């Protein structure tokens, strides 16, 4: 890296909504994908159990894509790339424990014990100590990414050093590294950039378990562009995606951003005192991930779409990608105002030289689509298993023939209604999801009623619902589909008509599982906020234990949630395998 001054990188420019997704050349099709929502360590712990269950029933090899957001990206990136610590998926994901065998105590296999090389161990660490340690080392816009790297990635070989202020990280030392798909893509990158010959690249793990799993699903880490500087002042956020082969945003568009940082208090949409706006071209395709953060190209692309430009100042690593995807927490964690947003040099992928780079701020993908589904619809994935690991249980008293509650997010997970054209209008709840409609509003009430019916069943099974929807054209995301007005008003399908099948899996109470637990554990759950499992299973995203530890959970909380979500998957084995077949 020390002698690397110029990158030579491939770009993948789009032509309108004709996107170039190079993973297709590596055999990844658009048959099926799995989504893990955001939600901090709750999302990580739930995803751990779901990955454990999917591995147990042997279906991970059925997925071409894994689309992750925020806390879900902590789990998804580690599952895709971990290379030290755990000897395999059984240790990394933890053991399958049937409900009657779940027991309190601190011995292996009990709720109070977790293997230090299990994914869930990272959710039990004191994240604020890492913030404090890295504040003394890095600039404020880097601190969140570095803390995420230290706490969640370093134990598994994906970040140079762990936060030594936290027990369990002493002696963690790994080479700084880029990330790519395979050894073959690493060789090609180094051939084109000889100065990187001695540098370390993290590679996607080979299979490892789960029946016919010979490779991991293709990882998409979802983030968003939030502004020119570090001000989230506009309402029109743009998707930004980090993957093993490329980074960027597929659809080119001109977006108006505040020109300067607003320092007079919280951001308010359409604030008359906000600074003047500047229009910036963003999107247009992708660049190979190792070159992201470099300056704009100085050399026009060849016929193979290679560009040359000044190299990034430091390796763009997984901590930068995963940290950005989860950076909604940064402001609350550091308390330094808007200046904490991750920043990178960025230029649109136009296929031409001469487009200047701009210092852009990037933010949590959950601000835009907290479930990761829209990235799959951009790729026209035909089937999606969507794990909605939400803070909000489904409200049985909500009348779905009316607009969902937009004030406190109480009726249903806030990322779901905008997909049906019900954007949240509160400043703090989903203002950025207003451009997300891909299904007809008339589908909303029947969909919610089915979810409520599942939750109301006497045996209270997992809330798993199979649906098929006509996809509507969405010009903001560049998603192909039928014309929204023509289809929703009279059923007329357009030339780009297609349907997506979705298996929705909502995190909620599951009486069929809880009833099998030891009575003492059942009593702990029923104690609610007065017991050791407040809000179970829908733990609060921030400060679940009301002790100013931000996203830290107890070992017992992580294990119990992982046991629940694993059981939900294995209990629904026939439903899931039938869906994927």
Structure notes:
By secondary structure, this protein is an alpha/beta fold. It has two domains: 6-262 and 271-367, no CATH class; 417-505, no CATH class. It is 24% helix and 17% strand. It is built from 15 helices and 17 strands. The strands form three sheets. Strands 1, 2, 3, 6, 7, 8, 11, 12, 13, 14, 15, 16 and 17 form a 13-stranded mixed beta sheet that branches. Strand 2, helix 1 (40-56) and strand 3 form a beta-alpha-beta unit. Helix 1 (40-56) crosses helix 14, helix 4 crosses helix 5 and helix 5 (140-153) packs across helix 7 (318-325).
Task: Give the termini distance in whole angstroms.
Answer: 46 Å
Give the low-pLDDT segments.
261-274, 331-337
Q: Which percent bin holds the helix content? A: 10-25%
The domain tally reads 2
Dominant shape: globular
Beta-strand content bin? 15-25%
The count of strands amounts to 17
**Whole-number mean pLDDT:** 89
Radius of gyration: 23 Å
| Major β-sheet profile | 13 strands, mixed
By DSSP (H or I, 4+ residues per run), the number of helices equals: 15
Assign the structural class, choosing from mainly alpha, mainly beta, alpha/beta, alpha+beta, or little secondary structure. Answer: alpha/beta
């Amino acid at each position: 890296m020390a002698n690397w001054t110029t990158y030579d990188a491939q770009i993948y420019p789009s032509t309108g909504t004709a996107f170039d997704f190079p993973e297709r050349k590596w055999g990844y099709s658009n048959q099926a994908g799995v989504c893990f929502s955001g939600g901090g360590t709750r999302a990580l712990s739930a995803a751990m159990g779901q990955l454990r269950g999917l591995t147990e029933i042997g279906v991970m090899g059925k997925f071409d894509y894994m689309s992750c957001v925020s806390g879900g990206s902590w789990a998804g990136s580690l599952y895709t790339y971990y290379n030290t610590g755990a000897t395999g998926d059984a240790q990394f994901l933890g053991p399958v424990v049937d409900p009657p065998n779940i027991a309190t105590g601190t011995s292996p296999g009990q709720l109070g014990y977790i293997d230090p090389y299990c994914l869930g161990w990272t959710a039990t660490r004191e994240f604020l100590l890492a913030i404090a340690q890295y504040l003394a080392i890095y600039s404020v816009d880097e601190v969140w990414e570095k803390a995420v790297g230290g706490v969640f990635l370093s134990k598994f070989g994906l970040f140079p050093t762990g936060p030594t202020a936290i027990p369990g990280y002493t002696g963690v030392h790994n080479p700084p590294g880029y990330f790519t798909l395979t050894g073959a893509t690493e060789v090609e990158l180094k051939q084109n950039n000889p100065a990187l010959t001695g540098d370390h690249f993290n590679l996607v793990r080979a299979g490892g378990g789960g029946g016919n799993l010979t490779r991991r699903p293709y990882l998409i880490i979802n983030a968003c562009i939030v502004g020119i500087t570090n001000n989230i002042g506009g309402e029109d956020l743009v998707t930004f995606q980090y993957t093993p082969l490329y980074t960027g945003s597929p659809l080119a568009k001109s977006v108006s951003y505040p020109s300067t940082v607003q320092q007079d208090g919280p951001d308010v949409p359409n604030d008359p005192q906000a600074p003047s706006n500047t229009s910036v071209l963003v999107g247009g395709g992708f660049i190979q991930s190792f070159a992201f953060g470099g300056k704009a190209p100085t050399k026009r692309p060849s016929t193979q779409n290679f560009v040359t430009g000044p190299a990034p100042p430091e390796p763009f690593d997984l901590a930068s990608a995963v940290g950005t995807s989860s950076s909604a927490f940064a402001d609350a964690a550091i308390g330094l105002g808007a200046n904490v947003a991750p920043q990178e040099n960025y230029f649109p992928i136009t296929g031409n030289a001469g487009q200047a780079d701009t210092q852009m701020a990037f933010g949590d993908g959950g601000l835009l689509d907290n479930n990761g589904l829209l990235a799959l619809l951009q790729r026209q994935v035909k089937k999606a298993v969507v794990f909605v690991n939400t803070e909000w249980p489904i409200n049985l008293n909500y009348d779905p023939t009316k607009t969902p509650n937009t004030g406190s997010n109480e009726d249903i997970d806030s990322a779901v209604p905008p997909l049906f054209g019900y954007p949240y209008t509160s400043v703090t709840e989903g203002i950025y999801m207003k451009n997300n409609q891909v299904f007809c509003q008339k589908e909303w009430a029947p969909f919610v009623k089915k979810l409520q019916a599942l939750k109301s069943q006497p045996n209270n099974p997992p809330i798993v619902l199979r649906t098929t929807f006509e996809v509507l054209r969405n010009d903001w995301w560049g998603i192909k589909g039928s014309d929204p007005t023509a289809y929703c008003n009279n059923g007329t399908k357009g030339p780009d008509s297609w349907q997506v099948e979705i298996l929705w899996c909502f995190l909620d109470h599951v009486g069929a599982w809880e009833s099998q637990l030891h009575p003492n554990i059942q009593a702990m759950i029923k104690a609610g906020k007065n017991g050791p499992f407040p809000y179970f299973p829908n733990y609060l995203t921030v400060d679940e234990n009301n002790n100013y530890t931000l996203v830290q959970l107890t070992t017992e909380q992580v294990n119990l949630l992982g046991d629940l979500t694993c059981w939900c998957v294995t209990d629904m084995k026939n439903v899931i395998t039938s869906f994927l077949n």
